[in-house]
Design brief:
alpha/beta, about 160 residues, binds 4'-phosphopantetheine, Rossmann fold, 6 helices, about 20% strand
């Protein structure tokens, strides 16, 4: 069977265990997953692109089947560059559906070869988001069980 490559794009500001759960599920279907971090100079992030890539490289350093990369511009152009046709996205709740459905159809409209595969995380991560993680750490809370230790350390440093 051909080598199946999928791209899992996102902001990853920061990566959570929900993202890792989706990657693990994706690896049941694909030989390789490219975790592609969006580089968007017009958006403000808590962690800059180098910091986000460093964290991801550290977290996935022992996993040959996971590639960490970044991209700028259109996602479909990045997929073409990588020789991939499949986008993986997580769907946590119905509230994710609208925007994800719109993006999937738009990406397919730009390039008809592109397919988007939606994966559902474990229910224990269904309420988890990078935005809430940042808010909780910023307000002095911590949710160690929801982020990898590399991310927990970085968040504590950032908000100490
Ligand atoms: O983690 P996020 O912020 O939900 O990820 C959004 C992402 C990176 C998947 C999306 O913003 C994207 O694909 N951006 C690249 C630009 C692009 O191709 N836009 C058209 C998509 S319909």
């Amino acid at each position: 069977m051909a080598n199946r490559i999928a791209v899992y794009p996102g902001s990853y500001d920061p990566l959570t265990k929900g993202h890792i759960d989706i990657i693990k599920r994706g690896l049941k279907m694909f030989d390789k997953i490219i975790v592609a971090v969006l580089k968007n100079p017009s958006k403000t992030y808590l962690f800059n692109i180098e910091e986000r890539l460093d964290m991801l490289n550290e977290i996935f350093k022992d996993h040959k089947e996971i590639e960490v990369d970044c991209f700028e511009g259109l996602l479909v152009d990045y997929l073409k560059k990588k020789g991939a046709t499949i986008i993986v996205r997580g769907l946590r709740a119905i509230s994710d559906f609208d925007i994800e459905f719109q993006m999937a159809l738009m990406n397919r409209n730009i390039d008809k070869e592109i397919e988007t595969v939606f994966l559902v995380p474990s229910v224990c991560y269904s309420f988890l988001s990078s935005r809430l993680v940042k808010e909780i750490y910023e307000l002095g809370g911590e949710i160690k069980s929801m982020v990898p230790s590399t991310v927990d350390k970085k968040l504590k440093e950032r908000f100490k």
